[in-house]
């Protein structure tokens, strides 16, 4: 790609980017590109290929409402099936042609004089009127910072970059981290390895998953009667939305959920000493609760040790904990999560040259998770305070897509070429977030470290209310929260807004 011009540039071809491309076309926009750093679409469902990788939200809800799939093979879709779903949806809606693969954004800077974004990529320079980040939040692996990390002479890799060529059979394997990814791959590798050491900083809340295969009869009925799929989606939505009772309504509602977690732990881990070490010491919801039926039984196997003493250092062939014990291992697997915010945020620079990453480091901020003051003609999906802890991310992404597309339609219809959320509107929103977050389980549930809170104890990016309330707030572009400027005209006096592809 050489130096070119386009009306809209979207970063990322995962759920957000694909959904945006589809809805942009439906709204009559054709002059747009989706910039994807990899060779294929799919985002996190392309990159995460570790054994057991699957969604932790039922597939009938973790999918586009406008593209239901009656043929999910299980309650919770597995990675290959979700990736196939995304490929099928993108092809069916004819948006793959808009995607530019192997194209990574190196820098994106707002140019005030020309009122556009200058985007440098590894394939050339692109000038765009509108920039939208659909980069997601699970694209960059996070590694721990232990002394001696680089001295380890065995095999080491992150779950995001699973080494499928490396055979774990008969090895002594260390897993660092007990988050959602580790909970999924630990049961898969446990039967193969000679010894599995699971290094646990804090025990996660594990809730029954109740996953199962779907029958041919079920799938046939869903194909024949789409209303059943809508009802199923609605049922899952209501059930998951109920976690909001724990998150921000009243922490007292946590007790039934904690009872489920404790009951599962009692049923699946008979050893009382191990069970005590696997019992969380914080309220459910303070960190991400995880749905699993096979993680706890895997930890109870004879070839597994759960180690909750902190790691002091890593040596050439071992991991040393602070109690002085040296644990010899052949392979280390990092299940240590992802960099938040994503690295691309540090490459997007607004009016004053400051990046979104710089702002995020100071204080996570946005307006409704979709716009940022100081960044004209910029929108995002799943930005700070645009995600919730009690609902499918796809539901929130669809709310944001609807809002963004309505903003772009407003710009087109009213011949505007510059929109920017007002600083006072964003600050009022952030004040509201802080006020509504003060007594949430995320901040007062007893967690020491979590994605959900900042170092100074504030909400790190979750919308502190119901997802249906968020849907109402983003149902249309609220122009009063923005500064709007009319289009500059071309030499022949015509608005230079929407171009044909």
What key attributes describe this structure?
disordered C terminus, 15 helices, globular, five-stranded parallel sheet, 18% strand, NADP binding, FAD, Flavin_mOase-like, flavoprotein, 30% helix, 501 residues, FAD/NAD-bd_sf, 2 domains, alpha/beta, FAD/NAD(P)-binding domain
In short:
By secondary structure, the protein is α/β, with parallel strands linked by helices. Helices cover 30% and strands 18% of the residues.
Structural domain tally = 2
How many β strands by DSSP? 20
Alpha plus pi helix count: 15
Secondary structure class reads alpha/beta
CATH topology of the largest domain: FAD/NAD(P)-binding domain
Proportion of residues in extended strands: 15-25%
Overall shape: globular
**CATH-defined architecture of the largest domain:** 3-Layer(bba) Sandwich
The CATH homologous superfamily of the largest domain is named FAD/NAD(P)-binding domain
Secondary structure: helix percent? 25-40%
The main sheet comes to: 8 strands, mixed
**Quick one: CATH class of the largest domain?**
Alpha Beta
**Spatial separation of the terminal alpha carbons:** 15 Å
Tell me which oligomeric state these chains represent.
Answer: single chain
* Unreliable spans: 490-501
The radius of gyration is 24 Å
Rounded mean pLDDT score: 93
Family: Belongs to the FAD-binding monooxygenase family.
GO molecular function: flavin adenine dinucleotide binding; N,N-dimethylaniline monooxygenase activity; NADP binding
Pfam family, one: FMO-like
Protein name: NAD(P)/FAD-dependent oxidoreductase
């Amino acid at each position: 790609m050489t130096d070119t011009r386009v009306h809209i540039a979207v970063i990322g071809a995962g759920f957000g980017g694909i959904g945006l491309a589809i809805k942009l076309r439906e709204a009559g926009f054709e002059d747009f590109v989706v910039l994807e750093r990899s060779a294929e679409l799919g985002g996190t469902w392309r990159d995460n290929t570790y054994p057991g990788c699957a969604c932790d939200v039922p597939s009938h809800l973790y999918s586009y409402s406008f593209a239901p799939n009656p043929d999910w093979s299980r309650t919770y879709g597995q990675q290959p099936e979700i990736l196939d779903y995304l490929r099928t949806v993108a092809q069916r809606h004819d948006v793959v042609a808009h995607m530019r693969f192997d194209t990574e954004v190196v820098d994106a800077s707002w140019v005030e004089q020309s009122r556009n974004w200058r985007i440098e990529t590894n394939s050339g320079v692109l000038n765009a009127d509108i920039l939208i980040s659909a980069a997601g939040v699970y694209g960059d692996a996070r590694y721990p910072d232990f002394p001696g990390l680089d001295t380890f002479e065995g095999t080491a890799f992150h779950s995001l970059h699973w080494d499928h060529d490396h055979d774990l059979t008969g090895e002594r394997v260390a897993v660092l981290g007990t988050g959602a990814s580790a909970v999924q791959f630990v049961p898969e590798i446990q039967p193969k390895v000679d010894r599995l050491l699971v290094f646990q900083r804090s025990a996660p809340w594990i809730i029954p998953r109740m996953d199962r295969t779907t029958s041919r009869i079920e799938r046939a009925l869903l194909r024949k009667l789409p209303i059943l799929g809508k009802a199923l989606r609605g049922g899952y939505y209501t059930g998951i939305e109920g976690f909001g009772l724990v998150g921000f309504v009243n922490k007292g509602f946590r007790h039934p959920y904690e009872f489920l977690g404790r009951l599962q732990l009692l049923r699946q881990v008979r050893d009382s000493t191990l069970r005590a070490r696997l019992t969380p010491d914080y309220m459910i919801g303070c960190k991400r609760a995880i749905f699993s039926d096979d993680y706890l039984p895997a930890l109870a196997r004879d070839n597994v040790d759960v180690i909750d003493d902190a790691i002091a250092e890593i040596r050439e062939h071992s991991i040393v904990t602070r109690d002085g014990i040296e644990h010899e291992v052949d392979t280390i697997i990092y299940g240590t999560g992802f960099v938040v915010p994503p690295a691309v945020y540090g490459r997007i620079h607004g009016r004053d040259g400051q990046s979104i990453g710089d702002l995020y480091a100071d204080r996570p901020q946005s307006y409704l998770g979709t716009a940022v003051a100081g960044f004209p003609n910029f929108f995002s999906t799943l930005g700070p305070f645009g995600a919730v802890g009690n609902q499918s991310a796809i539901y929130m992404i669809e709310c944001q897509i609807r809002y963004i597309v309505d903003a772009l339609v407003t710009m087109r219809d009213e011949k505007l070429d510059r929109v920017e959320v007002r600083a006072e509107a964003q600050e009022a929103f952030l004040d509201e977030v802080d006020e509504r977050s003060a007594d949430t389980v995320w901040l007062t549930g007893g967690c020491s470290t979590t994605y959900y809170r900042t170092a100074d104890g504030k909400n790190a990016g979750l919308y502190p209310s119901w997802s249906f309330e968020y849907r109402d707030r983003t149902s249309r572009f609220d122009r009063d929260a923005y500064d709007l400027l009319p289009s500059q005209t071309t030499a022949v006096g015509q608005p230079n807004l929407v171009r044909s592809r």
